[in-house]
Amino acid sequence: MQTIRIDGVASFDAGTYTKVKVDGIGKCDGDLKAEKIDIDGMLRCKGRVTADFLECDGTAKIHGDIRAGEIDVNGFLTVAKEGTRIEAKKIYCDGMIKVKSEVSADEVEVNGYISAEEIVGDSIKIHSPSHRLFNLFGLAKSRIRLIEATHVAVKGVVAENVNGKEVSIGPGSVIENVDCTGILRIADSARVKNIHGKFTTEEYC
Amino acid sequence: MELISKKELLAKTGISYGQLYRWKRERLIPEEWFIKQSSYTGQETFFPAEKMLTRIKTIKEMKDSYSLDELAALFKQKEELAVATLDLEKLEWLHKETGALLRAVFEKKEYTGFEIVLADGLLKYRDTHTGIVWDPAKLLQEGIRLFDAKKLKEPVILVVSGDGCMHIVLCEGAYLPLFDDSVKEVYTINIGERLTQLSSTLNNRKS
User: Is 0.90 exceeded by the ipTM?
Assistant: First the structure.
């Protein structure tokens, strides 16, 4: 298996690689599989992406599903097509992730922004700061239709439904429905319309 | 088909959201079993109750002995099994006449997983339902003919009795048919789960 590095503007073949490094602008016309994909520039991929480790400090636009061991986004990652999804063991995001369908991972930690139809897994933590730069993109808050996990902690999030065993709704969050089966914490400045489930309330701190 | 909500499923089985979604990602639970329906909260997910409860029970029983990848492979390979005739006699949980029934229908060196579990299921049904006299060999032939004609993702065989006749119905597990009042009894053979049991037994024998 080979390593491929893009410094300028180039298209490369779909296939399996040891490492794909994109410092320039790279385009792949099909399914891409690699042990490590490192994007500092811009990557556009028309197919699925499978990697042990996917790091995006630049911009990536993927038209198919993404399946990875670990995903680390400090830049911008978009999964463009309707019905396509991200699946991983761990997802870290200090930048921005935009997915039309589902994000599923054991662990999701977002300190930037994420928008998705559903984010599901074991531990989901989304703490989106209010930031003028992201306000310019209309992204003052992360927006998700359903967040569902064993442990959920959100701040600065707009969501229709949040379901979990341990749920913390932090400041700046606007949630339509919360369903909790364990411990529920809601910050005073959070807005939650409906609360369901059997839970114990604890103070948010 | 009876459905169970996601919330009821977690409460009943004791598994967590994390486990449910991990098993879905690892393809231990088929995507098509996640059935979305409208509810007051927008959309809620339901599952085929019997299949899902059986699958989760199987995963919980086997997950300490197999990795998730191995379990996924077991669930996937089940339809591709081929078992030599001589080995049938060594599988204690099969009905003792399974080999004889298969040989009566066709003499082969190896039988597929489907042929074996269907023969076993028909014989066990015959032993427990003696009201109607019927020929398992004929139903076995029909069942194999149907299965070869139509590949289904989650095949379920229904043995249907009514008006003094026995019939065999092949259907997709998530969409079981409804019958009129002339049907007196419907016996279900969940091919998928029995194939998993068979492949697990054979893998245990190899190791």
Answer: yes
